[in-house]
Amino acid sequence: MTHQQTYNPMQAKVPAPPGPGLYPFGAHQPVAPVSSYQTGQTLSSYTAPPSQSLLTRPPLGTPPSHTPPQSASPSPGPRLPPAQGTPPPPPVSSNSYYPNPQQQQQQQQQQQQQQQQQPQPQQPPPPPMAQPWQYNTAPPPVGPPTSMTAPPRGPVANHVNPASSLTVPPPPSSAAYVSAPPGQQLRSAAQPSVPGMPPSSLHPYAQPGSAPPPVNPMAPHSYQTGIAPYVGAPPAMKPTPPPTGLPVARATPPPPKADAQCGAALNSVQSPTEPDSQEGDIECPGAVAGNGPPASNSYNHVDNTMAVPPQPGPPGRHLGHYPSLPPGYQNTSAPPNATSTAHPAIQSATQPYTHAAQRYQQPPAGPGPAQLSPSLAAMSLQSSTPEALRVVNLLQERNLLPTGPISAPTPCLPQDLQKINCSPEVFRCTLTSIPQNQSLLSKAKMPLGLLLHPFKDLSDSVLQQLPVVTSSTIVRCRSCRTYINPFVSFLDQRRWKCNLCYRVNDVPEEFMYNPVSRSYGEPHKRPEVQNATIEFIAPSEYMLRPPQPAVYLFVLDVSHNALETGYLNVFCQSLLDNINALPGDSRTKVGFITFDSTIHFYNLQEGLSQPQMLIVSDIEDIFLPTPDSLLVNLNECKELVQDLLKSLPTLFEKTMETQSALGPALQAAFKLLSPTGGRMSVFQTQLPNLGVGALQSREDPNQRASAKDIQHLSPATDFYKKLALDCSGQQVAVDLFLLSARYCDLASLGCISRYSAGSVYYYPSYHHQHNPAQVERFQKDLKRYLTRKIGFEAVMRIRCTKGLSIHTFHGNFFVRSTDLLSLPNVNPDAGFAVQMSIEENLDDMQVVSFQAALLYTSSKGERRIRVHTLCLPVVNSMSDIFAGADVQAIAGLLACMAVDRSVSASLSDARDAMTNAAIDSLMSYRQSVLTIQQPGLLAPACLRLFPLYILALLKQRAFRTGTSTRLDDRVFAMCQLKYQPLVYSMLMIHPALYRVDDLTDEGALNINERTIPQPRVLQLSVEKLSREAAFLMDAGTVMYLWIGRNCNPNFLTQVLGVPSYAAVPDNLYLLPELDTAESQRTRAFIGWLKDQRPFFPSLHVIRDESQLKASFMQNMIEDRTESALSYYEFLLHLQQQISK
């Protein structure tokens, strides 16, 4: 199979817009496109074995609810007597999936002869008979079709699983149903005729007209009685004398024998994520089958989780069970898997399959993910979303922004499925309608990708009711290892079909019992099939070693420059305040390393009266002086830890050491954490200039405002990347806190966090006296960092339906395989993005599914798996593709791609590519969707904000040119775009502007007995500002409160507490708490905005002549600057390029 290239806007250049050809990708960390699944056949290549019969199933909406007693007399098969004298439709021959006219005629003649032998009431001649596949269809069963020959009345074997060689006796009763023409009735063959009673009274579902009318013939399928399956979604200086205050010991290197023993001990530790040849399909690549004690079959309520209440599905349908499509909605069945010795469970059974409805009575079923109601059968997806395709002339549209927050588009799925679909706050796709093939995707000129926030806080509204399941058995597909989810289909009580690869799997016996409702025999009601986001307590086979404890190591810069900033006091006090809130259990360990030109370790072993400092001055050959006493149990040595934190700020207050040996300090920390893994928190305040990893300044201040390509965006050395990869292999994540007023080469230092799944925190111009706003932000961030939830030794795998493939990842991680990310630590503030392509045509599918599974160790030592599943429809028209475009997700994914392009190529290439992304998509819309060519720059309503977001990206700190931008500031902005979840990065791309001097309670929210005003979102233009008002700009990590020169005096006195505009302080970063209604409204609104993000944004109150006014005005996206176009000029440029 030849891999088709996917449209990549990062390859194009302005001014010549690219043609309709395909674009190759060139993003960071490319992964060879590999299909998600290697097995299976397409429908066209499958040929049914001869001499097999096909099965029929009951008409939609009339499943059985009662099975009458079975007669003891043997019978060649359950034949239905005609309802009200009407002969039933003839069965279809099983020699092929397609009806053979000659075989149909023979079947009809045989059935007519049997009917003549039975007494029939006199009825008018029936209407012309239609083929049974005109009424009801079902996908072909996996493997060869099952014989339609009815089971004998004696005990015979049910479906045989060759892998287990277990036989299941048939149920004590049987009933078969076939469809009837409109107006006729259905009755079971085993139901006796009762004189004087109509046949419909014998069965509550057998009412006249219950069968769907024949509209358009469906594509022929195989049939299976009593089964309503899912049709569709697949699958060098002298050291400074040591400070006084602590006992100091000059550490000398241990003898070589000790080093060898230590190295052997380190090498003997096996990573819990090392690949294993036998169980490589589970989320932990090194997991092996274990014989640990089975967990109790119950539901635990831990870490803000809640009890799992019984969640009945919508009336008429149970989650996880989907019938086939009604007549008139064409669909081709899923490709059947080939019979393979590698998967014995899907080989054909040696004995006929007993009617599923004999034992398992399906509930009335509504539309499933591949089924729309009859009223929607002939309706295009675009007709249900007319607003998304409303044509907008961008040159004439003045007010583009909605009044409130922009929400993600809703996929065009049945309502009951949409309610259980994964939240867009966790799982989001750039296109909520997936094109049927790569050709359509390339023609649409929009990127296809996913944006994930997999470890989102449980306290957030979307996951407040996250079910946590404890069970010794986690049900997964035996072929692709997909976790059972709401979008699978239950063929019967004992079998379910995977929605990613279509494999038919057996339902484990334990899964039949629902401990919530304490009922047996309803697997489709379990929480695993009721929730698109769920968490499992993993059994022993998901771990290679006992879960690691929570280990925290703090590496602190104590050079002269560091002490001048004053950060050490803030850090020590914050850790003292939150030491009891550190996530962990009784095994939690902590350790400390400080460094300047030497490395300082701290012996905190229990029994010491005070901490002991150990100094290693030989930074060329780092060793651990006393490995067993440098990481100590927090509960046992808490008093020593507290004593150390209280004394650290004064230990180095008189130091004059200006050098920084960051590289050797990181090497020492890595050696200390390697045996256990854990989190390394590094605090750095200057450019490292001593030992391995030393750097030199590469920034030219005269080139900050250059309109040419920006240099030095890539690392200057690979030391930090190699060390990060070593850390990742030992389950160590590195978080970097950079606090400096000078250049620190974040492009090089950031690699230590990027490839070890860590985080980067950047505080430019940090000083405890001169910049109080940054100090407050550092305090708030540190508190969140120390107390938030954390997962250790994690891996994440993303699966998708067969035919789709993943080829590029974005975020902080190490790619272990094509779809597996290694995450030594995972935190709730981390986001990820993935680019995808369509490798095989999706013509046979109505929906596709994506599943992200995150396996991690909690701070309590539990191995857990959090699973998110997203279901999206498949479409075959350009209008439907455009109608499902998620403009914010597209902008977020393009930002990640542009960052990679800036580093691998140049900044100008990335800027040109983003501009071409807007040109290409609007040109494609004009050529493929619009039927009448109109003047102007036309866009569908769903993409009306796309040019604005592209212009905002061009003016964003990461990509702007012609404006003075420090190199570290630019690199940090790129790190944020790659690492932050979409909801937070969008505020950086396009800030929100509000007028706040006239806040009222009209339309306000009431949250926790607080009234939160909801002012209108304004366009980012000076045109919207007024000297008589006050405006708040929310730019993500920073907020600006701009006060007009002639601002309302009432606002100044009631909110700011100053009598006049001239009395507003220059460095005001906190609003006074005044007992006025205006002050309460303003503080409530700003506090509500801050609470919606995990990081703390600093607030700056600025006047019209403040120095920060330039920063405020640079966020006015729609206005012209010396080096950038205004929004209207940008639209004219796009129109000119499209019209060429």
UniProtKB/TrEMBL annotation:
CDD domains: Sec24-like (cd01479). Residues 791-875 form the Sec23/Sec24 beta-sandwich domain. Residues 474-510 form the Zinc finger Sec23/Sec24-type domain. Residues 93-120, 356-371 have a biased composition (Low complexity). Residues 35-55, 294-303, 329-342 have a biased composition (Polar residues). GO terms for biological process: COPII-coated vesicle cargo loading; intracellular protein transport. Residues 1012-1086 form the Gelsolin-like domain. The keyword Kinase does not apply. One of its GO terms (cellular component) is endoplasmic reticulum membrane. The keyword tRNA processing does not apply. Residues 886-986 form the Sec23/Sec24 helical domain. Residues 1-342, 353-372 are annotated as: Disordered. It is a peripheral membrane protein. Residues 75-92, 121-130, 236-245 have a biased composition (Pro residues). It is found in: Cytoplasm, Cytosol; Cytoplasmic vesicle, COPII-coated vesicle membrane; Endoplasmic reticulum membrane. It comes from the Eukaryota. Keywords: Cytoplasm, Cytoplasmic vesicle, Endoplasmic reticulum, ER-Golgi transport, Membrane, Metal-binding, Protein transport, Transport, Zinc. GO terms for molecular function: SNARE binding; zinc ion binding. Residues 547-786 form the Sec23/Sec24 trunk domain. Belongs to the SEC23/SEC24 family. SEC24 subfamily. This is Protein transport protein Sec24A isoform X4. The lineage of its organism: Eukaryota, Metazoa, Chordata, Craniata, Vertebrata.
